[in-house]
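$ ./design --mode recover --in tokens.txt
reading tokens...
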């Protein structure tokens, strides 16, 4: 089969790989019909994630058709159209029982922190991902859901991560009616978080980024008020100015460890590897939220940091909430919102790229060329 393969930082290509096989009776093999590249894949692509091995296939956002099922699978059969959450989880361990599917204890030998994620390095379990023609889906009775007939394929693939994560980011903000919600980052996660914030009762939604075309999308798609941080000496001071000098009630970090806007942090993180990435967006969040407010962190971060304003967070009495999104937990409510037309996730798709050209997709998305917001990947495109 054809699959995207990692060759080293900034180097990927499409190769022939052996077909995945059933390794456990509860596995399924899924023929991928549509996949996507996530901002999280860019951290892998840039060589930021520990233990990303040459030869692995990325891709944790995908939908497809069941090709084969293991002997104990009961809920799926060959030919079923399925959407697969990015988390691999058992459904029955201590953590899964508490809805913490992204922290499942049974799927990752290193599972002291994260559980397992398709195509996300051996740190996240070492499973191959769905930017390929076929993928092995463990715990096939637990993770995947049938795609409802009324659901558009592009909406389904965005529900496997980006929409669920943006919504989760807003949820962890504990938004009260009328709250001022500031979202840092206008990528797919930030756009969906901003849109979701309105559904949860926000009174004002502000989005900050430095890419004008994404801020335009935040205005059109998420009806947000937007600011370009490159136009201000200190964006935190400006955020204070526009919020009665108090700060936002809730700040959602939808940027993560590769934030721009802090040269020194960038050098210590990316060049010298002194930290697990740049904490600049997280620090802007801590500084821009009001005392007693909530910071919700959806951006991905490496394990160790030295320059986070933690004392300020303590002294401001902040609530800090964060996790990898437990995707399937979000689905019942999100299916309703998509069905009712409150959310049309496919509105943010900008590129539809055949698997054979996925290297171009990574390059365009990584360098933010061609007004790219969300690239989808089409295996077997003719
Ligand atoms: N927690 C989860 O479950 C989960 C799931 C998916 C993605 N993520 C993470 O969420 C983050 C965003 O993902 P995405 O797909 O939207 O990525 P993306 O790269 O498309 O978007 C990130 C955006 O942040 C902007 N940005 C950079 N520095 C900034 C700063 N200092 N302040 C404000 N904006 C800044 C960039 O210009 C870009 O538009 C990534 O770190 C990704 O790994 C987490
Ligand atoms: Zn993702
Ligand atoms: Zn579990």
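writing sequence...
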């Amino acid at each position: 089969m054809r699959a995207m393969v990692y060759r080293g930082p900034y180097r990927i290509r499409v190769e022939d790989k052996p077909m995945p096989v059933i390794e456990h009776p509860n596995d399924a093999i899924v023929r991928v019909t549509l996949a996507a590249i996530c901002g999280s894949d860019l951290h892998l692509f840039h060589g930021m994630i520990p233990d990303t091995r040459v030869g692995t296939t990325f891709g944790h956002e995908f939908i497809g058709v069941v090709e084969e099922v293991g002997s104990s699978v009961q809920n799926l059969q060959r030919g079923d159209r399925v959407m697969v959450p990015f988390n691999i989880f058992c459904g029955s361990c201590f953590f899964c029982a508490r809805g913490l599917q992204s922290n499942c204890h049974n799927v990752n030998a290193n599972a002291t922190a994260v559980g397992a994620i398709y195509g996300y390095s051996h740190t996240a379990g070492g499973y191959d991902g769905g930017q390929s023609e076929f993928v092995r889906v463990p715990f096939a009775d637990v993770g995947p859901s049938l795609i409802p007939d009324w659901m558009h394929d592009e909406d389904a693939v965005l529900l496997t991560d980006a929409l669920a994560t943006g919504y989760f980011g807003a949820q962890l903000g504990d938004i009260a009616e009328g709250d001022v919600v500031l979202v840092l980052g206008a990528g797919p996660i930030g756009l969906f978080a901003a849109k979701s914030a309105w559904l949860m009762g926000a009174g004002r939604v502000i989005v900050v980024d430095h890419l004008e075309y994404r801020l335009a999308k935040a205005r059109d798609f998420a009806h947000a008020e937007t600011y370009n941080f490159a136009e201000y000496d200190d964006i935190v001071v400006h955020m204070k100015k526009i919020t009665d000098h108090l700060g936002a009630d809730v700040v959602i970090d939808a940027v993560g460890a590769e934030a721009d806007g802090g040269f020194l942090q960038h050098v210590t993180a990316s060049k010298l590897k002194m930290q697990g990435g740049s904490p600049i967006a997280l620090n802007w969040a801590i500084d821009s939220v009001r005392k007693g407010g909530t910071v919700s962190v959806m951006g991905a971060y490496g394990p160790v940091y030295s320059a986070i304003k933690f004392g300020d967070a303590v002294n401001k009495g902040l609530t800090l909430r964060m996790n990898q999104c437990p995707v399937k937990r979000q689905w019942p409510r999100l299916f309703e919102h998509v069905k009712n037309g409150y959310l049309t996730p496919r509105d943010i798709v900008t590129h539809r790229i055949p698997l054979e050209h996925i290297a171009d997709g990574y390059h365009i998305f990584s360098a933010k060329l061609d007004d790219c917001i969300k690239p989808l990947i089409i295996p077997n495109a003719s």
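exit 0
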